[in-house]
Write a structure and sequence with these properties.
Pfam families: LRR_8 (PF13855), Pkinase (PF00069). Its main location: membrane. The C terminus is likely disordered. Strand 15 and strand 16 form a beta hairpin. The chain is α/β, with parallel strands linked by helices and 461 residues long. Helix 8 runs antiparallel to helix 14, helix 10 runs antiparallel to helix 13 and helix 13 packs antiparallel against helix 14.
Length: 461
Amino acid sequence: DLSDHKLKGTIEPVLQNLTQLEKLDLSSNSLSGEIPDFLANMKSLSTINLSWNKLKGVIPQSLRDKQNNGLKLNIEGNGNLCHADKCKSSNTKFLVPVVASVAATLLIVVVLLLSFVYKKKKTSKVRNRSPITKSTILTKKRRFTYSEVEAVTNNFERVIGEGGFGIVYHGLLNDNEQVAVKVLSRSSTQGYKQFKAEVELLLRVHHTNLVNLVGYCNEEDHLALVYEYAANGDLKQHLSGASSSTVLNWVSRLGIAMETAQGLEYLHIGCEPPMIHRDVKTTNILLDEHLHAKLADFGLSRSFPIGVESHVSTNVAGTPGYLDPEYYRTNWLTEKSDVYSLGIVLLEIITNQPVIQQVREKPHIAEWVGLMLTKGDINSIMDPNLKGDYDSSSVWKALELAMSCVNPSSGGRPNMSQVISELKECLIYENSRKEGRSDIDSKSSIERSTSFTADVTPDAR
């Protein structure tokens, strides 16, 4: 659901990579250009809502045909859309004046830009830290003054977390909207770079499983990010028991893992250019009041330059234990690095064991689980707090998936779309047990993936 997100520009072809997408809601934005033909080729789509945008041109006949076969298509509120026969007669009528007006406008813009650049060269001074220059930042998100940040947090009264960026405070907007305010002193150069990276990234990503940026403060020596509030803290707190006395059941854990994977899939194939989170871990998976996952902390995230292969060379960054060993060795960052980190999160969800624990026979969680699997000892692997309340087939499938994700070679890992598919199957097994069905292995069940290998364990990092 990307409705009312102030989106601009055309509908990008990258959407067709979301092969599992069933409903696409882009209503109440400022999207322009024509409706692309590829939407009709997305077989999983059953609902498309493009209403109240600025779309124009001919409505694709292929989309009309699909609408006749059951597709729910809403295009109202786009005054310049038309059927093929009605568009032809009006195209030439307005062509000449439109071209003339566009040319005149472009000439004025060029003159103004040249004047602006000339004046800027005469008056500007080079600063050590460049401000956030993304033009959309003032229109899409609210810019807070430092005094407003103080008021929102009641003078930084309640601390709700702390990370590499800074301290996180609870805040209240308009007396009813709860927010989380992450504050950093500008004395930290690295922190300021992460601040800029996180703001600029969050301005252009919108997904229900990614934390939403409400606004920011960038005033003199004061930096702050204002997020939507996650009422149930982070996943780590729930697994450790620090957040609640209630134990997360197996279905909830699988759902949280799948929603996290959906957020990552959006970063990997739903964004242009694609992005890699680079710091996926249980403390960065926030939970709202309904225990839905919201992936947070994008300060280390990286984008791929457009037109290059799906990897980028960069200095190693991340959290020990979650760090992709191949990335650690080669400095080559790919989306499979996020897959590795999510695999570690899956192992934590399954075992409720620390990622690194020196007193274990194998300190790293992936090595320890691999050792237990060779012994066929699933009971010692599973979180004892679950008290056996889970379907064994669901657990084994989740374990196999996790171990394939942490394969030391990125080529042996699934992509994020495959991870989502496998987790859906895990949920089917578990839900079938609860409903008392025994037909999960029938031919009618979702086809299982057999392309993953789980006979290797990673180097500890």
